[in-house]
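Dear colleague,

Following up on yesterday's call, I've attached the two folding results inline so they're easy to grep. Please treat them as preliminary; we haven't cross-checked anything against experimental data yet. The first protein's sequence and structure tokens come first.
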Amino acid sequence: MAFQKPSHTFTKIHLKALRTNIFQILFSLSFTVLINTLAFAQDLPKPVETIKPKVERDTLDVVADSLLAAPLNIKESDSISTDSIPKKKEFLTGIVKYRAQDYVSMNQKTQKITLYNQAEVLYQDMEIKSGVIVIDYSKNLVYAGRLKDSAGVYTQPPIFKQGSNVVEPDSIIFNTETKKALIFNSKTEQSGGTIIADVTKKENDSVYFIKRGKFTTSENLDDPEYYFLMRKAKVVPNKKVVTGFTNMFIYDVPTPIGLPFAYFPMTKTQTSGIIFPSFGEQNDRGYFLQNGGYYFAISDYTDLAVLGDYYTNGSYGLRIENNYALRYKFRGNLSFRYENLISSERGFPDYSRSTIYNIRWSHSQDSKANPNSRFSASVNLGSSTYYQQSINQYNAANFLNNTMSSSISYSKTFQGEPQTNLSLTATHSQNTQTEQINMTLPTLQASVGRVFPFAPREGTKKGAFQNINFQYNVRGENRIQTTDSLFFKPEMFDDAKIGMKHSIPLSTNWKLFKYFSMSASTNFEENWTLNTIKKYYDEFEDEVVTIDRKGFDSFRTYNFGTSLGTTIYGMWDFKLKDKDPKIQAIRHVMRPSVSYNINPAFDQYYETFEVISADGLTTREVEYSRFEGSIFGSPNKTYGSSVGISLSNNLEAKVKDRDSTATEAKKVVLLNNLNFSTSYNIAGDSLNWSPVRVSGGTQILNNKMSINFGMTLDPYALDNNNRKIDKFNIENGGSLFRMTSASMNMSYTLSSDTFKGETEEDKRAIEDNVRSGGRADDLFGKNEDFADKRLSDDSGKSKADENSEFYKYEIPWSLRLAYAVNYSNSARQNEISSHSLMFSGDIDLSPRWTVGASSGYDFKNQGFTYTQLRFERDLLSWRMNFSWIPFSSRSSWNFFIGIKSSLLKDLKYDKRKQRDQQL
């Protein structure tokens, strides 16, 4: 007997198995399937010859009856036509989810569903939460309202949400068929503002009509301190609000500030718009408008602000600001400032006209963009007198800057063994006092990583031989020195100097006597230059003539050096057997080192010429090097052999922690560093010892005060003409050393709660100050832009909101101090060359009153330095500032009051004026 095919067997058995829940039967049937699957080898062999059926054709023809016709495919339809009356549309086209805490009542007679206490209804994109909800499906209406308790207090007001729009009214009527609604006493948040309306008609998902609505940015919606009363308004959520007659109310008191119609943009995306200017009066330039213009929201990656100033005497200014950013790639900003300033009136003797400009560019690359290459820029260049002459309030805190600097660099790393680094840098340095400008366009630097030719392939390097290493460095510069008057003119390139320096340092190090570190090095340099000079004496003019030569020339130098150093640790343990002192131990770390250096003389690069008198006699010989005018200077012409001695110290203490739960003592730094250094010139014929230089620094008062000091001690004496002589000061009746100079700097920063950190406003102001070349603090005052408040766009909560209803018993305050003193006695002048104290601080007199000041006192010249006084009043949704510079050539005052919210930041009053110089 033949078996069926396994596939048929498997299907039949398992279809049967699926109809039972008995595991044993299912297992037996599955085992049977396995047996059938493997049973092909037991099939009966086929016979060799098979009997094929014989097919014979019937010779009898059958004629079909003509009466039998082919059946017809007939589809019968109902004789009754389709009903012309359309079916009634269902009341609800979607699934309704609802619930209530107390009860859900359905009344078939009135066709209403009532949900009571914490009722919720979810239908399509609509969501209603309320105290009571009534669904009238006979009229396609949904009612929602509040609950009233026994004391007459309303609770659980409705919350109506459709899509992304949320409305919080007292009651609401919603039509499920037309999607329209009537909303009573609603509060709707729109792009940072809130609309409070008596009656609101919801036309559709994107249009609302309002009657007697209030628009405010106040956080107290029950009693807003200000609002704009809109008699009639049309609201398109997240886009705009268009109103009729609108005027401002302050604490429900109407003000004359109003418009016959108004348009409020409500978009959440970046949009273009007008930046309203600030106005004021200046003594010699009349009335003015400052920092007004237009903001262009170009794209999500870049924007542009064009701002201008205008003065009634004809002066004007222009400021262009651009910000750009690409996530994980780069970010930066670019600005250009130009001012055309006119003083007095044409025809008067003090009439003057000047133009000043400033260009700033900051660009930083994200570290994730490319780990092997980097591009960065920090540019601040322009007229040397820009910050001193600019009359824009935006630059008020920068007019004390004495330098402007720029740097644009690109670096590239070529991975491998050894690694190669390449960088191109363009730099600029400008002294605003001397108007001297130094530039490098560009500076090329390249280096090849250290190579250890004798190091083992595996394991550590041992001994002097295996630690021998060398590398290759190259530096090329195109250095330009010019003045402010020739800046950006072809003449600035006339005195450019071009050169390149190649250096190959070779060094090694090893341990000596287990505790000493020994190192030796030599350095070979080759200098290329395109600028050399030629000197000779002109007998007719009786002067030395210097001729500049252009062309390639080079010279080579080398030197040797070695050093020996070690580290010595000392410990004073104050712990006694049965006592636990507060100071448990003091550790002293000393790092002495001795070095020896040889600098050979390269006389072959020097030439001489004779100075001949009128009678033909040689009066003197002048020695010079043709490389004196080169970019890297001339080679050394005197042999040098010197020994250097240095000692660095560090003091730390272990102090018992005030926290009783601490298991270990706290480490306190007593002295960060205390360094001594001097040298002895073996090859010198006199004045062999160089002055002893002392420097040190530490931090005290819980690291809040940093102290740095330094001095120079000269061992040689002075003669009667205050010139140094080859005689020790102690041999001349003086002390061992003569202090020729000394300096000390201290800075102290503290606050009432140990510094919570700078605010975002302070960080932005200080960052802008640093970009302009100023200090990284506010000791010279803060940058304040009262026009658009982009440096201080504070729309958050006030400081008083962080406290309870009872004000803190401790008054918040902060203080920053900087003290500097310099002493000079190089020629027995014995004087304090500079002595000043600068301070800046803020104090909160009340939860909403803040007073601040930045000033200083020059003890040498007996006078106050640049002073700025600041007063700020927090008016809840408003902000009031008063800034006053009481004296100096830039004395002025500025008053500002405006709304904090960035949505209405252009609604402000800004007044500024210079002090009357005649008074």
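Below is the second protein, in the same order (sequence, then structure):
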Amino acid sequence: MIVTRSWLNEFIDLSNVSNETLYETFNSIGLEVDSINQIEIAQKVVVGKILSCEKHPDADKLNVCQIDVGSGTRQIVCGAANVIDAEYVAVATIGAVLPGDFAIKHAKLRGVESEGMVCASSELGLPNTGKGIMILDESIGELEVGREFGSYETVADTIIELELTANRGDCLSIYGVARDLSSALDIEMKPFEYKEAEKMKLGIARDAELHSDGEMDADLYYKRATINDINNSFLVQLRLAMVSVEAEGKLVSVLAYATHATGVILRAYDSDAFRNEEGKVVVTPRAKAKGIIEIIGNTQVLSVAGVNQKEEVIANDETKELLLEASYINPDTLVEAVSTTSLKRDDLYYKTSRGSNPDLRFGLTFLASLLDRYTDINCYEGSLNVDVDREHETVIVEASEISAIVGMDVEISKIATILQKLGFEISSMGHDIIAAGVPLFRHDIKHIQDIAEEIVRIIGINNIEAKPFVFAEKARLNDTTDRYKAKKGFKNRAVGAGFYENVSYVFSERALLEKYGFPTVEEALDLSNPIAEELNTLRSTILVNLLNATRRNVSYTKKSIPLFEIGAVFGSNREQAEVLSFVFCGQVDGENVSNAGKPKMIDFASFTQKVGAVVGAFDLVPCTHENGLIHPYQSADIVVDGKVCGFLTKLHPTVQDEYDIPETFIAELDFDALLPKHINAKPISKFQGVYKDLSVVIDKSMNYYEVAKALNTLELPMLKDIYPVDIYEDEKLGEKKSLTIRFFIQSMEKTLEESDIEAVMSQVMTCLETECKAELR
């Protein structure tokens, strides 16, 4: 954003503010100054009045001018074609030294004496205002022949380029920047007053109509006018050049000037584009979709509010019947809507999408003042309006909370004053609390932290007293700390069990996940800009990442690769969960004397023991999970507290071959299911317990899980523990097998007697006979 000092001065009095103060203030309030350039016009460059202009006798492209420069009339030869249209010009008299160390001397051009030079803007160090010389008018101030050109503040101006963050669309105008300066410098804004001269008393409703169609998202104001002649203003040209705004044509320049000054999005149409068969101008804003408001004229889409305007309906210097439009639409709504379309966007879309000024009446009034000054215009009375009923965001502001965030005591009255100057609506809610109504041009303000940021930047970060850091510790134990502690415990136990921690991206390759039968994120919710082709989606399992790490380690000639990782995985709707994953590939131990240099390869039992050493006790039941990594015969579900929370399996042989790795076992568990639960303490017995073994014959197809499930239904207080110790099969048993189960029996009240033990074992045997068809061996 580029502003000039004199342009800012039209909205706020900067007469007692130096450029150094401006520079420091801008930086302190978050409008970082990228560059600041004080324009200096060379001495002896004065305002001259052309008395006569004749063709050079020996050169077709030269003119011989008689120019009054205050100290007398000078004859000057000029090669600019537009000099014949000029009355007042900037003249470098003899003795002036222009930029580039170019000294003006007496000269003779094609035999004609010349005593000076009529200047173009670029020859004086000003931005280029177009071809030819500068044609001056009183838009820069009263023109006095012989007055130093550099004495005009609007000419010898200060150009300031500001770096704005993306959320500061409110400062994409001279008025918006002046508003921030008003609060920071504690200087009141100058009121803008303009009483429009209604030359044409005909009301707009007699010539034009507005019919909205659908639910409107945009505020729209329309003004009708007839224009007979439009003049070129030097100040408009000069300032637009200073702020690097390109505009072709006089009317377009005035519109661009008004938009840059006020921040209101202004457009001008040839009103004939809206005129129907009855000769009436009919404007129809139509809501095509949320955030997309089409402006219809004679069934044709002529523009989209805040986005574009068809070139053929844009008013130009030849247009006599104008329809002026001011518009505002919430930038968040607009950007979200436009991003899903292929709509063409013009230069004004940038301002609209960042946040334009919603004060449409101010924008139209400012434009009217410019047109009245530089054109012969007649405006119809009144306007056609679309006003959207918007809910203003309200933030409750407590002085103590602001003070705590800022780091110094800030009185509620000062907070209220700062916010009011920034355009917030303030209402008191108590001794130390106010409600701040957020203005529409600050759509980025959502909560108290945003308000605190506004207070800090206006007070100035350098004005906040430095204080020593105070750290007052207090109990902060909560679910987050419990989770962190549990995670740290799992990691420590995993390292103790011989695993190495793996850390990988939360991304994976969609093709691999689909190949192995894992769910994938819906394409509408997937990554729009992946960091790499092979990391093009959010992972739904960590196992694929661990297998890639295993393959890399195998290629490094590692013979034992035990890895684990705790991390996030995502479902098809991007729902997030956390899992604990293991992979163990190759040898269980290193090569040493105890194993004669031939260590065992990892197997199901040893892998299960290592996982159990990390996560604690769990049960294994037949596997119900389905994916391409699971071995069809060596796999199981992991059950914790009676719920399936994951699976443990040997890697499928085909996958093992694809990765070209040795025998590998993998496991993945839901981390939340492993979190330690609060367990109330239970008393322990001071009496001795007894272990009893029981061998039974059961059907060969029955597994121990079914036997244990039946025994766990027994409600025997003295039966403390049950676990298998032997399974035996041979030809003599036929379709049966022998199962030996060990029971631990203990009483809380007394030393066990034989009758107590027999009673327990009798109920156990009855259960086995009934539920499992078991026979005593």
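For the second protein, one point worth flagging: Residues 490 and 614 are 6 Å apart (CA to CA).

Best wishes,
A.L.
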